[in-house]
Amino acid sequence: MRAAIVGIAGPALDAAEAALLRRYRPAGVILFARNVHDPGQLLALTASLRAVLPPHAVLAIDQEGGRVARLRPPHWRAHPSAARLGAVFARDEDAGLRAAWLSGALIGLDCAGAGLDVACAPTLDLRVPGAHDAIGDRAYSHDPDAVGRMGGAVAAGLLAAGVQPVAKHAPGHGRATVDSHLDLPRVGTAQDLADDLRPFAACAGLPWMMTAHLLYEGLDPDWPATLSAVVIRRVIRGRIGFGGVLVSDDLAMNALSGTPGERATRAVTAGCDIAMHCSGALPDTTDVLESAPDLSDAALARLAVARDMADVARRVLEGNTLAAERDVLLADEAIA
Fold first, then answer.
1. Nearest-angstrom CA–CA distance, 216 and 297
2. What is the pLDDT of residue 335?
């Protein structure tokens, strides 16, 4: 398999995309709102993807809750933002952790029911005053310990539904003052990143982690984290202690430069196990898949561990009961 996860253009897999996926055998496909219309269509799409992808390739989706959700009402549940869950935790830690686990489990049930096995959540970035709102209410709290505990609870809920969580965006996106979709955020040398790293260290045992397109001048003045061997080796694998599957954030974002293939090659060379490119534009996807190397033996082993974690944690969950319990917890928070 190629060390790449790619997007597709629309709600059905066309012949050119199918041929490309068969030829290059990527590690997976990630879906977005453009790929999702209703449950029947989505099940047909995931089945068609499974038919052309190699065994053990993943089907992923961004499904945090709040404003980052590709599965939405009326066909799927509405899930609360991280900030709303964090408000419950601030009032009552036990209730907050329970609400977080329930949200993760319910998101996982939605994903698994649609044929998806990886959810890009939770977000472990801090809420930082004065930062760009690209993170904003996607953060559970400004407190790193609260973020680590809440993110871990959401991840445990996802795993209980048999879905592999992806913690993001290591080593921390909360200090960005510009949107990395549009430009490269920079974090100055004077910034102490110890608090930013703590939630990721607390969740270092999760199966997947996603890099940040931020340039941390005190760590590597030349390359953003996604493309930095220094940040990946010394910080993400070193100080944070993460040993699972490391995937890049979307390489199509304007924070980065170079062709899609050059970005993918650099990300894997720097230490990402998998380069992710999400545009769904066929020429870009072709460039990524032609350029990306095969998965390393270490990456294949990490992917196997990630699958096993979800398999071990999976159990039968009653969606309606869980939803009712979570709604009670969130209603209490709203009244307070």
1. 30
2. 39
Q: What is the pLDDT of residues 187-202, one digit of tens each?
A: 987 678 999 999 999 9
Q: Is the pLDDT of residue 238 over 70?
A: yes
Any idea what DSSP says for residue 274? B
249 part of the active site: yes
**Considering 14, 94, 133, 181, which one is annotated as catalytic?**
181
Residue 164 sits at φ, ψ, to 5 deg, of -85, 125
* From 125, 143, 195, 249, active-site residue: 249
Q: Domains in the chain, start-ordered, CATH in brackets?
A: 2-335 (3.20.20.300)
Q: Is the separation of the CB atoms in 336 and 91 below 8 Å? A: yes
- Which element (helix H / strand E) includes 269? helix 260-270
Is 37 one of the annotated active-site residues of the chain?
no
**Token code pair at residue 180:** 């990395």
Task: Kindly report, residue by residue over 105-161, the tens digit of the pLDDT.
Answer: 999 999 999 999 999 999 999 999 888 989 999 999 999 999 999 999 999 999 999
Which amino acid appears at position 149 of this protein?
A: R
Q: Which residues are CB-contacts of 219 (< 8 A; sequence separation ≥ 6)?
A: 171, 193, 225, 228, 230, 231, 234, 235
Computed on alpha carbons and rounded to an integer, the radius of gyration of the chain in Å comes to 19
